[in-house]
Amino acid sequence: MFKNIKIEFALFLLLFLNWGCVSDEGTYDYNAINELNVKGIEEEYIIYNGDPFLIKPDLNPTMDDGSNPDRYEYEWVAVNPSKIASESRTIIATTKDYDDVVKLPPAKYTVYYFIKDKVTGVRWQQKPFTLNVVSSIYEGWMIVGDVDGKARLDMVSLIPGGASIRIINDVLAYSGSALKLEGKAVDVDCFGSAVPTTSPTYGIYVTASESGTARLDPDSFGWVPTQNIAYETIGGALPNNFGVDFMKAVGLGSQNFLYSNGNIYYYNRATQVRYGLPQNKVETEPKSFYAAPFIAESVVSSPYNPVFFDRDLHRFLRFNDSKGSCSAMPPLVGSSTVLDWNKTNCDLVYMTSSDYNQGESFAVLKNLTTGKYHLLRFSPTLAQTYYKEILNAPDFDKATKFAVSPDTGYLFYTVGNKLYEYDSGTQSAKLMLDKGADEITYIGFNRRGKKEIVNKLIVGSYSTTGKLELYTVPPVNGDLILANSYSGLCKIVDVTYRVR
């Protein structure tokens, strides 16, 4: 009985609905409303992040005399399909035209353009288009320097497949990074971080005198406070705004050194040793020594025997990573051609390691008694290969910057606006560059990157803006050959290369 009632009711309802549709036919008035027929948006765009981008759609309204400029609301929404739903949607503009700098991370986005007619309440969605955001900060020279006394990070960007390079001033602002450099420029470098992860985390480390040392995301240049280098230490061993004077990577970059104000900190990924207590201490002595601001990191061969210099006791010391301390160098009897490691009677003016002659290190020393300068070279096994007085080198006592060619072993030094090349074989120097009114602010060599830039002499100079130049260093004291020149930069303090 109940079943029959349900069937009868369903039939009645069907007849009622059918009757209603038939009886209402032709009784409604349909009023036309304002419609939009948007033109001027392509199906796909390719743009470098950080570049200005403009789309000016033509709305083509059917019933709008234009008397109300605020009639519509707009929204441009970029969706990254590679991310989870909660993180994929980004509102990139709320104006009629998209006219802004693209600050989206590199990816292929689907972009939706929504328009709401506030008079009718109708919201129109246009056909989505593809926005392919390509990285303009993929690879190239990272340059930290000063502008009006304040630190700035610039970049000479080498875009893959591009026919030309791109000079990017203030690349942090350009890329939308949250990092703000405070104080004067100090250092920039690229290598693996000490963050405890299952795989090495590559970072771009930039240092300013007040904001300290921060690690940038290598792809987006993004930054959050936990990317300050203090978070790569054991148990907060360093303050949050800790800043390095310089950084050194050993071997393939799995070991790193930090130098700051006479202290040296060490990290080893293989043994899971993170930055902690200073390593500038001798295992048999109770107090740490004040380390000179140089590390001979022995870059070519293993075993690595990094060498420090005790500024106060004027002695070289070798570092033992397994002990986290230093020990005395092999005893030598000093002579005119041999330096006593442990009693040098010298100040260390400069020291570095190079690829020259299977990984020799170079040290420039000033004798405390005579005031004369000497050049010391030693192998990764700490065998001294050269020790002689530096002769026939104009104004060497006024030199402020040094670098060693990994190909020729020439020692370069600067005096004001002049660059000299010292040949230890002939014990004489040659003037290589005279910059005239321009100041030479940086010299160095780069071991990383494309083969056409590796081992080029890097010269940073400044007049009204900074200039970065790369030179080929010929053998037999040949004149420098200019390979590349980039202008319009900050006053260069330090340079590194962001490799891929």
Molecular structure report:
Strand 6 and strand 7 form a beta hairpin. It is built from four helices and 33 strands. It has helices at residues 2-23, 85-88, 171-175, 356-359; strands spanning 44-48, 52-55, 72-79, 89-93, 98-101, 107-117, 123-125, 129-134, 140-147, 150-158, 165-168, 185-192, 202-208, 212-216, 246-250, 255-260, 263-268, 307-310, 315-320, 325-328, 346-353, 361-367, 373-378, 384-389, 401-404, 411-415, 418-423, 428-434, 439-445, 457-462, 466-472, 481-489, 491-498. The protein has 500 residues and is mainly beta.
Write the layout of secondary structure elements.
Blueprint lengths: L1 H22 L20 E5 L3 E4 L16 E8 L5 H4 E5 L4 E4 L5 E11 L5 E3 L3 E6 L5 E8 L2 E9 L6 E4 L2 H5 L9 E8 L9 E7 L3 E5 L29 E5 L4 E6 L2 E6 L38 E4 L4 E6 L4 E4 L17 E8 L2 H4 L1 E7 L5 E6 L5 E6 L11 E4 L6 E5 L2 E6 L4 E7 L4 E7 L11 E6 L3 E7 L8 E9 L1 E8 L2
Parallel strand pairs: 1-8
Antiparallel strand pairs: 2-5, 3-4, 3-6, 6-7, 6-8, 9-10, 9-33, 10-11, 12-13, 13-14, 15-16, 16-17, 18-19, 19-20, 21-22, 22-23, 23-24, 25-26, 26-27, 27-28, 29-30, 30-31, 31-32
